[in-house]
Amino acid sequence: MPTARNADARRIRRAASAKGRTARVKRGRRSPLATVALLAIGLMFTGGAYALFSASPSDNGAVAASQENVERGQKLFAANCATCHGLALEGTEAGPTLLGVGAASVDFQVGTGRMPLMNQSPQAPVKPVQFTEEDTQALADYVASLAPGPAIPSAEYLQADGDATHGAELFRINCAMCHNVAGAGGALTEGKYAPELHEVTPQHIYEAMLTGPQNMPVFNDANITPEDKRDIITSLVYMRENPSPGGFELGSLGPVAEGLFAWVFGIGALVALAVWLTARSN
Description:
Layout (H helix, E strand, L loop, with lengths): L1 H28 L2 H23 L2 H4 L6 H14 L1 H4 L16 H10 L21 H14 L17 H11 L1 H4 L6 E2 L5 E2 L7 H10 L14 H16 L13 H27 L1
Antiparallel strand pairs: 1-2
Helix pairs in contact: 4-7, 6-7, 6-10, 8-11, 10-11
């Protein structure tokens, strides 16, 4: 009998021990720390996958900036841009923040002379460029080093070797309502305007589509792919290099300019002819 009781007691202790281990395991699985860890791991893998698959081809062509170039850009920024945009790119009442605008935006704004801004106006006009290409690149590298943003496009998408017909169709759908179907520009509201595109370089055209400066909407690579952007550039270069087959194009400004020309010169010529005939008959 004592032996049987001892055996029963051992079985009870083993069962209790196993139950305790099971309870501890269950309690560990339900621990809030385990839930947080699982969420963190899930977010890490999700973010990594998103960054891998959503990286645009234009970003892949970017060359890593040297620390020396970034430091040079920081000095140039502090001397020429920080008054309006803040020393840490945080922005002020005189200018917006530049955190996240990327190197493409800096290259467009500075490379076309729009920045530094001379005075407050409805729109930053194109001016003679104030910085060399090296200084512009240094400024772009510095701004890009502080926060991620659109990179300067790869050279393969700036060659005018795409489909000009497809690019002209995309331009008519997305751009012609402001820039005119021939890229001659046009007026907007409140003193703003869409600039003409005949003298704009392919790189700046691409950067404008990518960053949406001033009144222009952003056409990122999800809206218009890099290949489609190359086609648009090809169509604009084709229009620039091939004169109008219809003769004097009157700035390609459309029916308003053509109608004005007809009234001023056409009707004016008819009036002058009528006056001459009347004077001759008298």
